[in-house]
Write a structure and sequence with these properties.
This protein is α/β, with parallel strands linked by helices and about 220 residues long. The chain has one domain: P-loop containing nucleotide triphosphate hydrolases (Rossmann fold). Helix content is about 55%, strand content about 10%. The protein has a five-stranded parallel beta sheet, with helices on both faces. The longest helix has 25 residues. It starts with 14 loop residues before the first strand and ends with a helix. The protein binds thymidine-5'-phosphate. The site of thymidine-5'-phosphate (TMP) has 12 residues, from α4.
Length: about 220
């Protein structure tokens, strides 16, 4: 007879991502959401893309640096996924396996929106890399902080020095926003849309309501 204690299976954590055009207030709102999730008793890992590990942050510097204004769009795409592969395997997956709720500021939907919608790379090619790097992993929930791209860009540019992406023409950001909205429409189960245009109080009221369905 085997008297050894039963192997208690560790419950996996949730994977929640946050998306939107620049200036949508993601950083402030993610911190607010993280506090709410912690208060509900969950352990969290707060991270971001591109970045999240030492190597991925180094790749991020290459991606946002204005030193490479003419970077080829496929180079940009591959660097996004190189950073993601490292981040996923070294940080995100171990945290989910340990039962943590992983809150990630941008993930692959940003690639579909920026490199797909913005730069015009085909969805098929992005999907191939998504499958290669992630296997079946997809976020459980995605919060889209949505606002008029012109307002968002003005907010972002007001914050100070702009990076390589923030220097793009407004048409680029309109395409990015449109792609996000198309994805949200097609994947209603996963997406939660927050209207990021009104003041912080009103944005946080929406977030509280949406979170109450998840927590
Ligand atoms: P951040 O402003 O959210 O820190 O992100 C840096 C920039 O990287 C932002 O302009 C969006 C861009 N980006 C992509 O173009 N594709 C991606 O897959 C990710 C994660 C970010």
């Amino acid at each position: 007879m085997n008297n050894s204690p039963k192997n208690i299976e560790q419950t996996k954590g949730l994977f929640i991502t946050f998306e939107g055009v620049e200036g949508a207030g993601k950083t402030t709102n993610i911190e607010y959401i993280a506090e709410k999730i912690k208060a509900a008793g969950h352990e969290i890992l707060l991270t971001r893309e591109p970045g999240g590990t030492e190597l991925s942050e180094a790749i991020r510097e290459l991606l946002i640096s204005k030193e490479y204004p003419e970077m080829h769009i496929n180079t940009e795409l591959l660097l996004m996924f190189a950073a993601r592969s490292e981040h996923l395997n070294k940080k995100i997956l171990p945290a989910i396996d340990a039962g943590k709720w992983v809150l990630c500021d941008r993930f692959t939907d940003a690639t579909f929106a920026y490199q797909g919608g913005g730069r015009g790379i085909s969805e098929t090619n992005i999907s191939i890399l998504e499958d290669l790097v992630q296997g079946p992993l997809r976020p459980d929930y995605t919060f889209l902080f949505d606002l008029n791209a012109e307002i968002g860009l003005a907010r972002a540019r007001n914050r100070g020095e702009t990076d390589r992406f923030e220097q793009q023409h407004i048409d680029f950001f309109n395409r990015v926003r449109a792609k996000y909205l198309t994805m949200a429409e097609a994947q209603k189960q996963r997406y939660r849309i927050v209207n990021a245009e009104p003041n912080l109080d009103m944005v946080q009221q929406q977030i509280s309501l949406l979170l109450s369905e998840i927590l």
